[in-house]
Design brief:
By secondary structure, this protein is of the alpha/beta class. It has 21 helices and 18 strands. It has 2 domains: 202 residues, Rossmann fold, CATH 3.40.50.10260; 282 residues, UDP-N-acetylmuramoyl-L-alanine:D-glutamate ligase (3-Layer(aba) Sandwich), CATH 3.40.1190.20. The radius of gyration is 26 Å and the shape is elongated. The two termini are 30 Å apart. The relative contact order is 0.10.
Length: 517
């Protein structure tokens, strides 16, 4: 367990929260002109010298930052041209910044970018709520096709800072300079790809300018979020103190997925792992496993008897379990038993029109659902509007993967892991984390089965459900990044280690795994 100097999880802001921070800073006496000057200077510092620079300025504060950056770069001896769609509103802070620019302001329409050019995108910021049209849209199309190096201010123009989505033309940047805190849209897909390298600049805001309304926030999924809850391995611990994880197998010809989950759970530190299934399935498993125990459970009643007879600390059901009445009956037994439970794959599909079953589970037992996009839509898509908090959100925010996952977690009274390259983990209490260390190598058959096993192992070792899931998602991404291209699920399993082995962030490769652009 780490000491009191443990850094706080990396907080992410929504556009409304950032606007409130700006307003609070102004109310505290921090000059808006000074903030814009600092922002523009940070942008100028992100531009490497020597190449001609074109600055595309919009009429708002984003454009004001661009005028400041243009002036500073010109004063440094760079060749700078400024193009604008429209002049800033008279008397605004952006207008004052534009007045200090000593050079012509050209119309945006004729702007023709070239590959040798650096272009500063200062057209629109994160709060834009409409598709870009007209001369700005045409300029963005030319810019994206030009091969020019692009530095975006705040977010690439056209990108929603909350959802990471674009409703129209959007700039593809190689580098994005934002201020004070990253926004959720910087890490949600495709925003993460459109932003390129993300630079978070200090412009004078601090935590005192954030609203403290007590609502759970959104954070980046890093070890700081869960490291203090990582299971420890005392020298005198026996296997059941480290947790016994049960994985429900599918039929004989569909055993591989559950076996991947079981092997991942064992490698992730569960003290004991068992596979339960019918005679034929166990016969197949017996050829492949040694350290994993095999338990007979041909039906829901037999599973119930097994649960009463053994000391299981967590259960996983779904990986190739079959979309059959047997699987559904077993899910009911598990929900009634109240053990920490991971529902994945077939378990989610079979519940698509029967998600009300989740509400009847015993007590407040930990429950983690791990849908990919298709499973999420089948399970929650038509029902999200029934969640009052979600229904009250502006339409743009309803498109956010974070808000969709939060709503699903509230409805299921569970932790929901909405998988993808930008996996979101959300709890029913409103906490949410965005994972950004996952890459395309994880898009391989069986990868999700491995993730289910990691979550099951962490639950078996006593981690709370939200932290157990977040840690598993991070570990999953870190192992994938360590191997890289050509990854298969069995190779992924072989890289898995218990969190205790990497909690100090010094395990070879894993400890250095970082968020990806």
């Amino acid at each position: 367990m780490t000491g009191p100097t443990e850094p706080a999880p990396t907080a992410l802001l929504g556009t409304a929260e950032m606007a409130a921070a700006d307003a609070a800073a102004a109310a505290s006496g921090l000059s808006v002109d000074r903030l814009m000057a600092a922002a523009g200077a940070a942008v100028a510092d992100a531009v490497s010298g020597g190449a001609p620079v074109a600055v595309l300025c919009g009429p708002g504060n984003n454009g004001g930052d661009g005028y400041v950056a243009a002036r500073i770069l010109q004063e440094r001896g760079e060749t700078v041209s400024v193009f604008a769609e429209a002049a800033p509103r008279q008397g605004s802070v952006a207008a004052r910044a534009a007045a200090l620019w000593k050079g012509p302001v050209r119309a945006l329409g004729p702007f023709t970018p070239t590959p040798d050019m650096v272009v500063i995108d200062a057209l629109y910021g994160a709060g834009l709520t409409r598709p870009i049209a007209g001369a700005a849209a045409e300029a963005i199309t030319r810019l994206n096709a030009s091969g020019a190096r692009v530095v975006a201010i705040d977010v690439p123009s056209g990108l929603d800072g909350d959802s990471g989505q674009a409703s129209g033309p959007v700039v593809r940047a190689g580098r994005t300079v934002t201020f004070f805190r990253a926004k959720t849209g910087h890490h949600l897909w495709p925003g993460r790809a459109l932003c390129g390298e993300l630079i978070i600049a200090d412009i004078g805001l601090d935590a005192s300018h954030l609203a403290n309304d007590g609502k759970p926030g959104v954070v980046l999924n890093t070890p700081e979020l869960w490291r203090q809850m990582a299971p420890q391995q005392p020298a005198d611990a026996h296997k059941y103190q480290r947790g016994h994880c049960l994985v429900i197998s599918g039929p004989a010809l569909q055993t591989g997925a559950s076996r991947l989950s079981a092997e991942a759970a064992l490698n992730a530190g569960a003290g004991a792992v068992s596979l339960a299934g019918d005679d034929e399935a166990l016969g197949v498993h017996a050829v492949h496993v040694t350290a994993i125990m095999l338990r007979l459970a041909r039906s829901a009643p037999e599973l119930g008897a097994l649960l009463r007879a053994a000391r299981f600390a967590s259960v996983i059901i779904g990986p190739a379990a079959g979309r059959s009445p047997r699987t559904l009956a077993m899910i009911d037994v598990l929900l009634a038993r109240g053990l920490p439970l991971v529902l994945d794959a077939d378990a989610l599909t079979i519940l698509a029109r029967q998600s009300s079953r989740l509400a009847g589970r015993a007590g407040a037992s930990a429950l983690v659902l791990t849908p990919h996009a298709g499973e999420f839509e089948r399970l929650f898509g038509d029902q999200l509007a029934e969640d009052p908090a979600y229904a009250s959100l502006p339409r743009a925010l309803q498109a956010s993967k974070v808000e969709r996952t939060r709503a699903a977690a509230r409805m299921a009274r569970a932790v929901v892991v909405f998988k993808g390259i930008d996996t979101v983990i959300a709890d029913a209490d409103g906490r949410a984390a965005i994972n950004s260390n996952g890459g395309p190598e994880l898009a391989t058959a069986g990868s999700g089965d491995v993730l289910a096993g990691l979550i099951g192992a962490h639950l078996a070792q006593g981690m709370p459900a939200f932290e157990a899931a977040a840690a598993a998602v991070w570990l999953h991404g870190a192992c994938g990044a360590l191997f890289g291209a050509g990854l298969t699920a069995d190779r992924l399993v072989s890289l898995v280690r218990p969190l205790a082995a990497i909690a100090a962030a010094d395990a070879p490769g894993l400890g250095q795994a970082r968020a990806r652009p």
